[in-house]
Amino acid sequence: MSELRDREPHASALPGARVSHRDIRAIRGPLLTVGGVEGVGWDESVEVETPDGLRHGLVLDVDSDQATVQVFEGTEGLTSGAIDVRFDGRPLHIEVGTGWLGRVCNGRGAPLDGGPPITGDRLAPVAGWPLNPVEREPPHEPVLTGVSVIDALTTLVRGQKLPIFSVAGLPHLALATQIAAQATSAGSSFMVVFAAMGLPHADIAYVRDRLEARTASGELVLLLNAADDPAIERILTPRLALTVAEHLAFEQGADVLVIMSDMTSYAEAVREVSAARREIPARRGYPGYLYSDLAGLYERCGRVRGRDGSVTVVPVLTMPAGDITHPVPDLTGYITEGQVVLSPEIASRGVYPPVDTLSSLSRLMRLGAGKDHTRDDHLDVSAQVLAALAHARQSAALAELVGASALGETDRAYLTYRDTVEQRLLHQGQGETRTLDDTLDRAWAALGVLPRQELTMVSPEMIARRLPGEDAGVRDG
Amino acid sequence: MDDMTDATASGQARTVRVTGPLLEADGVPDVAMGEILHVGPDRISAEVVAVQGGRATLQAYEYTGGIRAGEHAAPSGRPLTGLFGPGLLGSAFDGLMRPLTSAPVWLSPDRPLHTAEGADARRWHFEPRVVTGDEVSEGDVLGVVPDSGAVEHRVMVPAGTHGRVEWIAEAGETGALDRVATVAGTDVHLSDHWPIRRPRPFRERLSDPVPLHTGQRVLDLFFPVARGAAAAVSGGFGTGKTMLLQQIAKWCDADVIVYVGCGERGNEMADVLDDFAQLADERTGGRLVDRTVVVANTSNMPMMARELSIYTGISIAEFYRDMGHDAVVIADSTSRWAEALREFANRRGDLPAEEGFPADLSSQLAAFYERAGRVTTLGGQDASVTVIGAVSPPGGDMSEPVTTITQRFVRAMWMLDRDLAYARHYPAVQWSGSFARDTAGLARWQTVRGDPEWSVRRATALEVLAEADRLASLAEVIGVNSLPSRERMVVLGGRLLREAVLAQNALHPHDATCSDEKGAALLDTVLEVIDACHAAIDRGATATAVERLDFGPVIRAAQAAGRDDSATIATIREQALDELGRLP
Ligand SMILES: Nc1ncnc2c1ncn2[C@@H]1O[C@H](COP(=O)(O)OP(=O)(O)OP(=O)(O)O)[C@@H](O)[C@H]1O
Ligand SMILES: [Mg+2]
C-alpha cells in the first residue's frame, strides 16, 4: 500500500515544464500574474528568480495562458523586467524523514542552524491527503504534559486537536513551550514539531532556549517564521510542520505533538492573499473558506487504525481584543476538540498558567482519562473540582454584591476553595513538571477544604481512599 | 494556444481555467446541466453547473492540484448517480457515495476506486415475493434480500412500471447488479443507479402529525418533532449539537438512520462508526450499525463533495422510505454545506447576498428541507424521511443568514445556549428561543394515545420556566433572599424543572434515553412538588424552610429509575410530597 501518496508529475508532462517565463502581466500585493504559460497546473509550486535571490510561490489560478502566483516572500522589490518564473510541474513537495529531527529551519523549511539542507527518505506533498474516516482510530490515550491544570481538568489525548485561546500579553507562549518541553506519552517515542508563525525574535529566542534539551536529544523540529519574516510564508509553515509530523507518526510510529503559534498571524496571511485577489469576504475581511483552510490543517491530527503513532495538534492563538467570537478563535473552536482558554482575570491573581477552567474543555478527555487510561478517580475528581469552581464563581459574585462577611459558611468555604485550587493545583512553575499522581493528589487536597457533604460527584469510597486526612470518616463541615 | 484550438475544432472539451474546485472547459459538445465530466489524467469527477456557448463551468469533486489549462474533459453522458441496492446498511460512503470501507487510507484523487462499482462484486440472497404472471404496479414488492441489514430490504417495481411479471429470479444467490425480474418489458435489477440530486417519487404527502420519539426529554416533552418533518439544532461551537444528534440517532424510533458528517471532524465519524457498531439495538436485537448508513465527508475532504453529501444522504433515506420504512437523516452540519455553496458561488463571481452567501441560498435550503416528508409510497405504504440538521452560526450569532433562513423552513428549531453548556447543563436546549410548530397536532396524537394532559403539562412547565427566568434576572440584582416567598418558590420550581426534567445525562445507562411514560411521570412529579411548595408557603411555611429541603432525590429521579420503572418515580414523589406536607 502506498503510504502518504506521492503524486508524480503527469507522465505527459510537457517538455516546457521548467522553462523560464518572463511575461509578467501584473504584480499586486503578494500576487504575480504570468502570461504565455502552457501546461501549468493549479496549486503547482513555483520558483521566482530575482536579481537578489530566489523566491517561491504557488499557483492560485490558471486561466488559458495565464497563471496567477502567490509569492511567499512577497513581491516587494520585484520589477517585471528582471525576473524569471519557473514552474515545477506539480504541487509543492518536500522531503520527509528523520533528517528533520534536531533541526532548526525557517518557515519554508530552509535551515537556520548552519546545517546542510534537509534530505529525507522520499517526497511528500505539503497539502497532505485526507485520512479516510473509516481508517481513523478514535483517540484513547493521554498525552501527559506535566502541567497540572491541563492534565487534571482538560486532559490532552493522543490524536486530538486542542487549541490554546489567549489574549495578547498573557503567557500562552510560555505554556505552549512548557507543553512542548515536557509532554510525554506511553508510546515508544515522543517527538515535537514546533511551528512558529509571526513571532517576535525575543519569543523565538525564548522558544529555542527552552526547548534546547529536546533539540539536543533529537526529538524536536523547529520551523520558525519571525514577525519580520515574509508574512505570506506563514501559509506554508504549518503545512510543512504537519507533513513532517505525519511521516514521523504514521511511518516511523512516533507520537508527534505539533504546536502552531500564532494561528492568528497565519489567518492574517490568508486574509492578505484573499484581499489581493479581491475575493468576497465573509466576516471581518476573512475569506469564506477560512473554515476549510484551517480544517485542512487541524484535521491532519489523529491516529490510523492498525498503526502506531499519532499526530496531536495544539494551535495557539491570540483572540483580538479578547473576543472569542472573532473568526479565528470561532472557526478554530468549530474544528478542534475543545479549547483551553487563558484569562486576564486569573492572570491578575498571579496564577500561572492562567487557565479559565470553566470555559475550557477537552472534548476527548472522557476517552483518554480515568480507569485504564490515567487513574480511576480522575474523571470524577475533575468533574467535582469543576462543579465546585462553578459554585465558587457564584459565591464570589455574591460576595461582590453583599460583601464577603455577609456570606454563609458554605459560600465562604467555596471562596477558600477557589484560592486553594488556584494556588495548589493550577499555579505552577514554568519549568516545573508534575506527575499525574501529584496533580490529582493536589486536586483532592483542594477539595479537602470544602464541607464533606458538598462532594457529591465523588463516591464515599473514593473519598475514604483519596481525601487527605480522611480516616474512615466523619468530618464536620 | 494552438493545440487548444485544434481540440475545440475536433469537438474535444478541454479545460481553460482552473481555480480551486472551479473549472472552465471550452469546446464542450452538447452537455446537460448536471452532467458529470471526467477531467485530467486521474479522471476526477466534475459536474456541469453552467453552460454558455461552447464553454461550461464545472464544479470539481476532488482536489484539483496539478490540473492544467488544456486538460481533457470527457463527458460521461449522465449526472452524478449512486448505486442503490443491498449493502448500504452498515457501510460508510463519501459525499459522492463511493464506499469508504474499500478505499485506501489516504484519499488522493488517483485512488483506484472512482465509482461505487466496487460494490458489484458482492453476492446476495434474493427471495421472490411474486410469481411469473402476477399483475404488479409501481412500488409493489417483487422480492426481498434477507441479511442485508437489520430492516427488510425490499426490491420494488420501479416508478412508472405496471403490468405482468414476465420473469422473476428464483430464490438464491444473485450478483449486486444482476437482473432479478422483468415486469411488462422492463428489467429490474438488484441494485440501480439513481441521480443523487433528484428526489425519488412517492404517491402523496400525509399531513396529520405523528411524533418521532427522540428519547430526549426536552425535545419529546417541549419541542417535539413529527415523523417526516424537518428540524434543526443551532448553536455555537461546543454547545452540544453533535452530541444531541448522536443521541437522537441512537435512540429515536425510526427504522433507518442516515448519518451525514458534512464538513465536520474525522474523529467524530470514527467515533460514530465505533460506537454504533458496539451499541446493542433494542429495536432489532442486533447492533445499531446494521440499520445505519454513514456518509462521511469530513472538513478536510474535497469541499464540493461536501455539498453533495447532503443529497447523497437524503437519497439513501428516500430509498428506504420507498420500501416502507421510517428513515431519519442526520446532517451535521448544514452550515458547512452552505459554506461550500458560498465558496463556489464566489469563485464563479456571482453577486453575493448577505455575508457573501449566494442569493439562492434560501431556495436551496428550502428545496433540501422539502425532501423531508411523511408520505404514502408508490406501493401504498405509510413511510417517512425526517431531516434533522445542525446549524453552526459563526460567532454563535443567531441572526446570521443560514440560521435565519433555516428557521423559516423547519418545523422545529432547537436553539442551544452557550451559558447552559458552560454550566454543563446538557442538552443545552433553550426553552425560550426554541420552537416546535407541530405541537398542537402532536398533542392531539398524544390525546388519542391516552395522554390528554400532554399539552397542559407542557404549557404549565414552560410558564414556570419563563417566570423563573424573569425573576432570576431580578434576583441577580437584589439577591434571591429579597424576593417575596411566592416568587422564591417560582425560582425554586424553575431550578427543579431544569435539573430534574430538562437536563439529561447522555452517559448514564438509565438516562441516555427516556420513554414518553417516564418523561411524563418525571414532569408530573416536579409540577406536583412545585404545587406543594406553594401550598406550604400558603400554610405559613417560610421560603427558607422549603428551600432547605433536600430535593436531591427528585433531581436524581431520572437516573435512579430504570427505563420502565414508574414505581421508583412514584416513591420519590410520595416522599417529596410527604416532606413538604409536614412543613407547617
Ligand atoms: N448531552 C451531553 N451530555 C454530556 N456532555 C455533553 C452533552 N452535550 C455536549 N456535551 C459536552 O460538550 C462537548 C461538545 O459537544 P458537541 O461536540 O456536541 O458540540 P457541538 O455543538 O457539536 O460543537 P461543534 O459545533 O464544535 O461541532 C462534548 O464533547 C461533551 O463534553
Ligand atoms: Mg459538532
Automatic annotation (TrEMBL), chain A:
<comment type="similarity">
    <text>Belongs to the ATPase alpha/beta chains family.</text>
</comment>
<dbReference type="InterPro" id="IPR000194">
    <property type="entry name" value="ATPase_F1/V1/A1_a/bsu_nucl-bd"/>
</dbReference>
<keyword id="KW-0066">ATP synthesis</keyword>
<dbReference type="Pfam" id="PF00006">
    <property type="entry name" value="ATP-synt_ab"/>
</dbReference>
<dbReference type="InterPro" id="IPR022879">
    <property type="entry name" value="V-ATPase_su_B/beta"/>
</dbReference>
<dbReference type="InterPro" id="IPR055190">
    <property type="entry name" value="ATP-synt_VA_C"/>
</dbReference>
<feature type="domain" description="ATP synthase A/B type C-terminal">
    <location>
        <begin position="368"/>
        <end position="464"/>
    </location>
</feature>
<protein>
    <recommendedName>
        <fullName>V-type ATP synthase beta chain</fullName>
    </recommendedName>
</protein>
<keyword id="KW-0406">Ion transport</keyword>
<dbReference type="Pfam" id="PF02874">
    <property type="entry name" value="ATP-synt_ab_N"/>
</dbReference>
<dbReference type="InterPro" id="IPR027417">
    <property type="entry name" value="P-loop_NTPase"/>
</dbReference>
<dbReference type="InterPro" id="IPR036121">
    <property type="entry name" value="ATPase_F1/V1/A1_a/bsu_N_sf"/>
</dbReference>
<feature type="domain" description="ATPase F1/V1/A1 complex alpha/beta subunit N-terminal">
    <location>
        <begin position="26"/>
        <end position="82"/>
    </location>
</feature>
<keyword id="KW-0813">Transport</keyword>
<comment type="function">
    <text>Produces ATP from ADP in the presence of a proton gradient across the membrane. The V-type beta chain is a regulatory subunit.</text>
</comment>
<dbReference type="Pfam" id="PF22919">
    <property type="entry name" value="ATP-synt_VA_C"/>
</dbReference>
<dbReference type="InterPro" id="IPR004100">
    <property type="entry name" value="ATPase_F1/V1/A1_a/bsu_N"/>
</dbReference>
<keyword id="KW-0375">Hydrogen ion transport</keyword>
<feature type="domain" description="ATPase F1/V1/A1 complex alpha/beta subunit nucleotide-binding">
    <location>
        <begin position="146"/>
        <end position="362"/>
    </location>
</feature>
